[in-house]
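worker-3 :: picked MFS transporter
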Amino acid sequence: MTSAHLAARLDRLPLGRFHRRVLYALAVAFVFEFGDLNTFAYAAPALKKYVHLTVNDVAFATSASFLGMFAGAVLGGRFADRVGRRRALLVSVTVFSVFSLLNAGAWNVPTLALARLLTGVGLSAMTVAATTYISETMPAAHRGRMQAGVMAIGLLGIPIMSFTARGVIPLGAEAWRLVFVFGGLGLIALPFIARLPESPRWLLRHGGDAERAVAGIEAETGGPLPEPEPADEVVETKVRYRELLRGRLGRRTLMLAVAWIFQTLGFYGFVAWVPTLLAEHGFSLVHSLTFSALTTLGAVPGALLAWVISDRFGRKLPIALVATAVAVCGLAYGMTFNAVAIVAFGFCVNALIQTFAALIYAYTPELYPTELRNSGNGLVYGLGRLSNIAGPLIVAAIFGAFGYQPVFVYIGACWLVVAVTIGLFGPRTGMRNLEGIAGEPDPVARARTVPVTE
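worker-3 :: tokens ->
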């Protein structure tokens, strides 16, 4: 089987039982992954009140978490390219779930920071493996919307976790520990992921039985299938990790790295700090948690918006427009102190950043060839997480020196950088097969055209 023939067979498929299994299995994992990403943001006000953490302590623990996410994304990306997407998913979900439980036992700032760092390793490794698996197994006509569907269901974890925190944290000085149990429940996803097949595209590149995997997927459609559309083959050249930093792939990596760095600074500058900033600005702990919890209700509608627009309008233009809208709504949020306006603009920001997330999660792995898809995805995602080691310190410094509103000017500026970068330099990917987007060669041609040596 050639890569073009495999792509044609996968892209002709209607959405069927296999695609639904992928949707639900990964959505369950994302429910607890997204919930865990936000646990510290909601526990932080209680930690400040009961454990007497300072704003700088919160920034230190948050930065440790993002250092772990960087390591998990980069190392996990390479791990998944070597051992397979399915195995990487099983390992990463286990890692973030187990270490999330250890957060509940932290007794000081260093132990809390260490627990957040190790949890972050599993969180990012799972994210890059999952988004790559979706890209490689979904038909081209549905790739964006299925990525958004997984996100929409998974994002239910944020309001579930936030309202759980709202109910649990005020119960007592130690109740914040219960919030971290939420991420540990990610172990529930393991049996569902274990039943998924390995990515046929990965199997083809690594000498596995891609034919059997594709035939199994086809059998789950439950009906006759159209003939695969003919596709041109491309000559093979061996792709090594360093190629991510050279030539056409290097330019894509640079463009994506800038976008991921500034979207991460803008995303977590808002999501991770809003409860703490509201409390610091004079709102009570209960009001801060209530306002923050209500704004998270925008997350699921935001991902569903991506479901509607992603495959219809492609990824590039919607990403640029949505990033601009986040900048505007985020600035409006920071300029008001009316409770209703805070919730309304906060709802819009949470909705739009999840629209953006669903789009960028679909867009990033599309730009790399199969052999480096998870590595490239992990590298740029990891660089975004690495940048946010400084992110909390930047927010704390701006807040300390200039006050509440300038923080949101900074957040808006980050999102505008993303919009300009993708809008000017991002390639279009909608409705194209992955091999065509990546300019990916055919492994079957290797033996008859170009000899490859390590």
